[in-house]
Amino acid sequence: MAKLWFKFQRYFRRKPVRFFTFLALYLTAGSLVFLHSGFVGQPAVSGNQANPAAAGGPAEGAELSFLGDMHLGRGFRDTGEASSIARRYGPWFKGKDGNERAKLGDYGGAWSRALKGRVVREKEEERAKYIGCYLDDTQSRALRGVSFFDYKKMTIFRCQDNCAERGYLYAGLEFGAECYCGHKIQATNVSEAECDMECKGERGSVCGGANRLSVYRLQLAQESARRYGSAVFRGCFRRPDNLSLALPVTAAMLNMSVDKCVDFCTEKEYPLAALAGTACHCGFPTTRFPLHDREDEQLCAQKCSAEEFESCGTPSYFIVYQTQVQDNRCMDRRFLPGKSKELIALASFPGAGNTWARHLIELATGFYTGSYYFDGSLYNKGFKGERDHWRSGRTICIKTHESGQKEIEAFDAAILLIRNPYKALMAEFNRKYGGHIGFAAHAHWKGKEWPEFVRNYAPWWATHTLDWLKFGKKVLVVHFEDLKQDLFVQLGRMVSLLGVAVREDRLLCVESQKDGNFKRSGLRKLEYDPYTADMQKTISAYIKMVDAALKGRNLTGVPDDYYPR
């Protein structure tokens, strides 16, 4: 043995390059094994998490005994599912069967899913009503919004989804590969036989014909329907007292239309376009014109002189649209100039709107938010605090979904964001199987994944809130629904806890930029209720438990719409 070892040493002394190559390969292999074990290893569960009833007093024990013998610190049994949660759903996580679910592209975008078969797509994506074949003219288009072409992969759903995402009411396909969007159809109906060309990316489906459009009316969600092309409808508002200061740019337009006013204000680089009969006003939302007191739309119901179906307001009541111009008054962001003395959590159950709340806080304060985890996709979207260690002290608050005593007590204060569990569970299911703004496929909703997901996550929704109320220090409870309904007031409360003085105009700017890049299109809303009667019964019990815990601490209980159903 010693002789063999001597020969081995002498060989590598003569060939040092081979020795170092061998050493490098050895270290690389070891690193890969270490990384692999880091992603698939089981998380440690503290005693309090494994048995939360034992951690508290008799009342807490009775409160949580309803949840059974699950590991309720995170709401999971000790399975591969728990491992994926602990590691924040990294791209290499494994399922119970040990097979990789990894590659984020497996659940791809909406477009790739649309190619998986027409029958499945029709059941899953039937969010638009076919209204007929229409004449189209290259000199005078039937649909005059945005358009795009794809001569290899065009599908009906791809066109519909793109038009819906931009707020258009109609989507039309032509030549098997062209997609046109519009707010109204400006052409005549023709025979169905004239739309005879197959979609380039979808066999068996018709995508118009030569100068013929297959037109669909999009069934948008209510919150997405009030648009005109890419402009967002803000409502009818009374003329401001000092018009020249509130809306500094004005142009007379005798042949007024929504398009003309929106285009004019966009060219002048203003985010608001206000139509006042034959005058178009442009400006920013300010304390002089905050867009908080909407009037009855009948007061603005004067038809546009150049547009039959749209209202253009009156000299006393303005119809207001938000253009695609970005309001830069609240877009500057940076790290804190000095290390923060407090660690403030932005805590929520997954799917409760944490990413959206981070977006709002960053715009309102001008400082980056951090995270207990690392999500490369969020970093690439502009959340630069994502790379900082959560204890760095350079960020204004830290995103977390943790719910154990040890993790909660690491923070000095917290904003606890609570959302309707029915909505939160669906949002997180969509995120898990479709990405931050994607959607779970029909097969996932109808397969075993959805019932298993609800069984594992629903208890966590309850214990997450209960744990933060019990162990958290200086906890500010914010309901997602209240934040959505009254953003100005609720965001002001959140910023106050963070200890940052913010001007009112900046909060108004945030209101106009509130959606960010993390809002799902309204087109793919499920047309059926995925919750069974048993699921609803179980979730209702959790809602009552959380409601009682909030009221027991002299806080507002859960909103009424949490109850089904």
TrEMBL record:
Q: Does the keyword ATP-binding apply?
A: no
Protein name per UniProt:
WSC domain containing 2
* Top-level lineage group: Eukaryota
Protein keywords: Repeat
Task: Please tell me the species this chain comes from.
Answer: Pan paniscus
SUPFAM superfamilies named in the record: P-loop containing nucleoside triphosphate hydrolases
- WSC domain span: 127-219, 230-324
Q: Which family does it belong to?
A: Belongs to the WSCD family.
